[in-house]
Amino acid sequence: MKDLLLAHINRHISLTNVEEEEFKGIIAEKKVFRKSFLIESGVMVNELYYVVEGCLKAYYVDDLGNKHILQFAIEDWWITDFNALHNNIPAELYIEAIENCTVLAISTVALEELYIRIPKFERFFRILYTNAFIALRKRVMSSLHRTNSIRYLEFFERYPNIERRVTNYHIANYLGITAESLCRIRRDLGM
Amino acid sequence: MKDLLLAHINRHISLTNVEEEEFKGIIAEKKVFRKSFLIESGVMVNELYYVVEGCLKAYYVDDLGNKHILQFAIEDWWITDFNALHNNIPAELYIEAIENCTVLAISTVALEELYIRIPKFERFFRILYTNAFIALRKRVMSSLHRTNSIRYLEFFERYPNIERRVTNYHIANYLGITAESLCRIRRDLGM
DNA sequence: GATTTTCATTGACTTAAGTTAATGAAAAAT
DNA sequence: ATTTTTCATTAACTTAAGTCAATGAAAATC
């Protein structure tokens, strides 16, 4: 279970067995059932989650009560309310399981201590956030300057094989368009 | 000149005088004149830039020859083609000076060496990229789910006092809307 | 200082996407 | 197994934003 995460980390840094064991000490396995929440708006957030199995969505609810999906997370993805976590403010996001999930929770307090003892982890998360930043830049370019039809196709590159795991309504919401509009796109694409 | 950057860095980590001197050794001051380029599409990128003075834009040109502005950078901002830099691929972006600029260039090869000698820098850039990632998430939320009118107002929070430094055409392009549409927004807002 | 280029704005028209409403199919709940 | 809820799709209509074209003002260039 935890080995999946260690393999993920070892793609960027090399840990000794002792370091791996120390890291295992600050992560905890959690089960999240379909339709239940990992984070709800208003709570304080002090964990980062790595998805071992399952599918989740991060969304916020605006003043009019409309949901807006910001992110999905499937196997090998990270998810949390990053803004709340890093700025110590109450969560704005809901993180809800779309399927029954297994995640690994990392407490950031423990992680901060680990950074001091093993700076390699600082390196790992530097690389992780750099990559996440670059991926989001591409998403910004795409959302501002590409047609919805192309953005729909790009979505499947970003979340491979997610078709049967989330509804078209979810995908439309993530893309910031209506389900009806997505439906027309699918028709025009012959899907 | 370089002290501005050191003050910026010392907001997140504490450097000794020796470490500051060592860091100064890997940064170089560069002047960029209005309408000239820091990066052009197709070149290899190996520097990260911190803006001491002036204003720049990062844009790409699509298949139809249309420009799309992804980012502005003013004093105390960082800019480069992050994707090209971190993945060692040719630049997709142009980074062009809108005003005569003074920037500090940091070679990433030298920076990588510095990370090993002084892991605190790894920490600094972890925090920097984390904050950049969080800021981009907010931008994604905004671009997908807010009205253009609100996004126009948010733009000025993000780039304070930029009004007289960039044209409305630039702002419209950054927001992914037409200059005419922005004009109507300004009219409706009584601007 | 004169000329050229860029910029902001407006109007008329077109197009893409949102809204509302209805339907049968699929999935979930009991 | 039956009922209830959610989901995908379609159509008719509305709205917001894009396109095209023209104008004077402002800025940049010579």
**Unreliable stretches of chain A, pLDDT < 50, 5 or more residues?**
none
Rg of chain A, rounded, reads 18 Å
The CATH superfamily of the largest domain in chain A bears the name: Jelly Rolls
The mean pLDDT of chain A is: 94
User: What's the count of strands of chain A?
Assistant: 8
Rounded to the nearest angstrom, the distance between the terminal CA atoms of chain A is 37 Å
Secondary-structure arrangement, i.e. CATH architecture of the largest domain in chain A: Sandwich
Largest interface, with counts of residues having CB < 8 Å to the other chain, equals: A-B, 32 and 32 residues
Beta-strand portion of chain A reads 15-25%
The helix content of chain A is: 40-55%
CATH third-tier fold name of the largest domain in chain A: Jelly Rolls
Number of helices of chain A: 8
What number of domains of chain A? Answer: 2
The helix/strand series of chain A, from N terminus to C terminus, equals: HHEEEEEEHEEHHHHH
CATH class of the largest domain in chain A: Mainly Beta
Q: What is the 3D shape of chain A?
A: globular
Oligomeric state as shown: homodimer
The strands making up the biggest β-sheet of chain A line up spatially as: 1-8-3-6
Largest sheet of chain A: 4 strands, antiparallel
